[in-house]
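[Solved] Which block belongs to which protein?

Original post:
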Amino acid sequence: MAPLPQNEMRSFDYFHSGFRFRQTRSLVETDWPLTDPCIENSIADERETPIIIPTNSRRLLRHVAILASLATFTVASYAAADVSSSSAPADTQVAQTATPAPPPAAAPAAAAPAPTPAPVWSVGSVDLSGYIDGYFSYNNNRPSNLADGQTNQYYTFDDKTDQFSLEAAKLTLNHDPDPVGAHLDILFGRTNTLIHTNSPGETATDNYIEQAYISMKPPKAKGFELDFGQFVTSAGQEVVETMSNWSYSHGLLFSYAIPVYHFGLRTSLPATKVWTIGAQVVNGWNNVSSNNGGVTIGLTSSLVKPKYTWNTNYYVGPSNVDTQKSYRNLIDTTLLLTPNAKFNWYVNYDYGQNHTDAAAAVVGVSPKILEDSPHWQGIASSARGQVTANAALIGRYEYFYDDQGFATAFTSKQTLQEFTGTYEYKWPAGLLMRTEYRYDWSDHAAFPRGNTAMVKNQSTVTVGLIAFFGPKR
């Protein structure tokens, strides 16, 4: 998944770390007056006292005085720099070695206090990072008496409504492969509950792992990397972590078109300077233990250019009871456009098909549906504009078609659409706020209203607050 491009006009350097402010000052050149107020009386009485210094000479003297003042200020600045150079940060001292050192100050450098090291969120060679994500959501349908409480229909992770909720609390431990590394994501909250709801042999109460894998990157393998364990899927533009997406709520394609994670092997290899390819051999979709004895194959491709990024992923393998016939296919592609530093736009398309067999009896589903191999497809488009150094506006539209209600667990074919408008504000101390309005609609009455009514649409307003840290600030 392509990371968000950097924006040189913003006040921060990296999306997950601290911020750098830049202030610009403008010097306005002002013309000196032709007459000097200090000698106004002499000029007024010029009939009696002639002017000794011509006007041009006075200008020359003034400019000489100004230049002398500037020279004095410059000398004083260099003198102050000599005194403070011994206590400069370590990275500043390294940069100064490229130029001749100024004369030593009167006080010896050894007497200066030791430089204070920059704070690093790490334990030894393991970097630490994490975040806490909470929100409040309001649904104009005021749904109630649902099996899972008051929820926004067709939402993921931030689906609780008319209440304050914890979407996720996450702690990450990471050691980059050199040549062996490891990565662990410990996850709590509503996000963890939904990720592990349908995992065979697992429940959310005893599994708080989002990712856990070891990495190997041989030094002479030309960038080849191999991961083994549990890792998030390569499909889709959006990811599990809300703060790494553009909108606060996760879209329809993330929720219903693609898997969330896999367990198995994952590889990547730079084919050229701008093109990276990879292959995966995993147990299936959203599970650690396979329930069919087969494996799913994944093929990945990522082309990264200065003005655009194009990612394509393909997954195929058994994800049902019948290993020989019940294959699931997914084609996922995303084009991310980065024409300039203030505007970005992406288009994400997914097509999935789940071949099933009538011999695999499913309660409540007719044999015809099982033999028809249901398929689904959707497209998402989102644009992001940076309006100030700390604020951004985002718009997202999605269209999702499920020909038999397989992906959305609906009773028949369904077409879903949604539009989301988001305002984002970022503080430099590791705090992010998003306020958004989202409107969902369907060609069927699929959204609960009140206790019993079902309608074709819903409107929600959500305010999310995310505090994050690390690995370095």
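(Second protein starts here: sequence line, then its structure tokens.)
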Amino acid sequence: MSIAGNILIIAGIVMALIGMIGLFRFRHFYARVLITSNIDAAGMLLLMIGAAMQSPDAAFALKIAIIAVLSLITSPLSSHAVLRSARASGYRMKSGEKP
């Protein structure tokens, strides 16, 4: 389990790094929020699964699993709240602007 856990942790870090590069490539606010939500969901999930596999006991792995589930529930909700408040405050894409 140690090798598989290490591989998942490294994959989560690589996913986060690739997502950060993508974050700087996008110019528009809405696209940046979308990519940060994807970084959070995919990278964090891989890191948490890898950490749970590395844990010495089942109780600690259960705590990590609960944190991962709660994060997967709250992350899209917070991204939606940020985007909804931006739209409600009047932030719009220009007609010729590309994401």
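Accepted answer:
You had them paired correctly. Confirming on the second one: The first helix runs from residue 2 to 25.
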